[in-house]
Write a structure and sequence with these properties.
The protein has about 160 residues and is mostly helical. Helix content is about 55%, strand content about 0%.
């Protein structure tokens, strides 16, 4: 390796900062800055290249892996035997939740008339009702309510007969 003057070192440093140097040129820079007679204006770079040289000399010894593995705890695996029922329990819970929601939905769609003594359970999903909408109240006598209910039943029977 030839000894270079400070001008060529400065040019080499410029190429080094632009990441355009080869490994051989970087070795020349490290060798140059390890010397004792580095010019004053280049002394600020000496510590960088000295640090790189020192770090290259450091190596891990043969027992490093063994020491690290001895410090790391072995993971403890707690295996449980799961039955088929335990595996499907989340599915059972989801199915029960869906059943409860559907049952509540079904109850909400039906009307209950306990005052009349009978339960009207007309399924109106997908059907078009042609009967007049009548609101039943406590002010109307029961006989009138009975007449309205009978007329609604009659209309349903006529509709079934036509179909």
């Amino acid at each position: 390796m030839k000894i270079m003057d400070s001008n060529s070192i400065e040019q080499l440093l410029e190429r080094y900062w632009q990441c355009e140097t080869s490994p051989e040129e970087e070795a020349q820079l490290r060798a140059y800055f390890c010397r004792d007679d580095v010019p004053r204006h280049l002394l600020r770079y000496k510590e960088l290249f000295a640090y790189q040289q020192a770090q290259q000399a450091l190596h891990l010894d043969e027992a490093f892996d063994a020491r690290v593995l001895a410090e790391v705890e072995a993971p403890v695996v707690k295996a449980r035997r799961m039955t088929l029922t335990a595996r499907f329990m989340p599915l059972f819970k989801a199915a029960a939740t869906v059943a409860v929601v559907l049952a509540l939905d079904n109850v909400m769609q039906h009307s209950f008339f306990t005052e009349v003594g009978e339960m009207a359970t007309a399924d109106t999903i997908g059907k078009q009702i042609s009967a007049p909408s009548v609101a039943l109240s406590d002010d109307v006598p029961l006989a009138h309510e009975k007449q309205l209910m009978d007329s609604l039943h009659r209309m349903d029977k006529e509709k079934e007969f036509k179909e």
